[in-house]
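Quick question: what would this complex look like in 3D?
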Amino acid sequence: MQYLDEYRDAKIARALAAEIARRTTQPWVLMEICGGQTHTLVRYGIDELLPAGVEMVHGPGCPVCVTPLETVDKAIAIAARPEVTLLSYGDMLRVPGSRGDLFQVKAAGGDVRIVYAPTEALKFARAHPERQVVFFAVGFETTAPANAMAVWQAKREGLRNFSMLASHVLVPPATRALLASPRTRVQGFIGPGHVCTVMGTREYEALAREFRVPIVVGGFEPLDLLEAILMLVTQLEQGRAEVENQYVRSVSQVGNPQAQRALAEVFAVCDQKWRGIGGIAQSGLALRPEYAAFDADRLYGTAGFSASEPAECMSAAVLQGLRKPADCPAFATRCTPDTPLGAPMVSSEGACAAYYLYRRHTAGAGRA
Amino acid sequence: MCLAIPGRILERSGRDGTAWGRIQFGGIMREACLDFVPEAAVGDYVIVHVGFAISVVDRAEAERSFALLQSMGVLEDELRSDLEAG
Ligand code: SF4
């Protein structure tokens, strides 16, 4: 366990792993939904520390990875316009569209910039009334309230040169789709700690009841994940299927009401396509009609875009926990973080990138 | 981009009808909106995601998470901005 040894609580981690092994009497397949958790899990080799019967599969929990191909194409088309400055989170610039990515638009003279917060895009729009400023907003429920606030404030100030290309995804409907699939192998979920910090845990209670599946909302550190896994295995071994909260230091049952209010003011739930997975009913957020003047998709006439995904990329199976990244023939050969074929290779929270960074020499060996 | 990072509120101010804080993440400073955590005060530790504080956490917990994120080398990427210098 070379990775875990770098972690100062390695002793406690090992004790937790031993306790998981002691309680496990039969094989269980568990999924972490959030990409931040995938990153920690792979980085510290947590999954390799578990008893043979407990298998971790990685979920669709990286908003960058599931942003539809045609939405990336839209961003590229809009960014190429001379009057536009397009701003987005750093990872989005490297996500491949049908042809090229946003970095290539930037290299060809397009005005594309990285921001770390949506309010920075707003600030830029105020300071540059001569530019049309488009914020390419992606995210789960954690990010959507922040993106919402930018639009809300733009409307309040009457900013006329700010708009948003929005692609938001919701975790509970995607979890439901995974569970409803006849191919699913998942028997327990680690719930996304920061999504639940915003939304609370109530939506997950219905899922746990309906599919008789335990869900433990977990944090992002090695010990958080091990504790969440222990809580899941304990429930499974006892035949329980409840929502429990391991990440109490940030998550409450009701979540953050201020953030929820911002989200509901600006966005309404809509059907949404997930890259690699396909359409999932009521799993996204669209700008409400009152905010149509800030909808870049409408302003730049890109609503009709469609694209089909490259056949070579196995991300559909990877994002649904059916295959591991190293099962993909392109992994670490034709597909690397520098030349990603699919979005899960782009962000460090994408499963393929996490395996490339920390597992290439073991999992990917011999495939080159 | 989905990470959330604990930082300490150094200063609180109001602007454009919103509450703002100057937040310290180790050696990096950033502004964050405090509208979602009206209870947070100067000196408190908050979890910040894309420039918005989403919860208030205990100091020891925050420092531990921060050290971990730093050792994972993901902070710079998460706080990267072409508009704001260092
Ligand atoms: S390794 Fe690359 S091509 Fe293969 S599934 Fe992952 S992103 Fe797609």
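Answer marked as accepted. Chain A has two domains: 1-312, 315-359.
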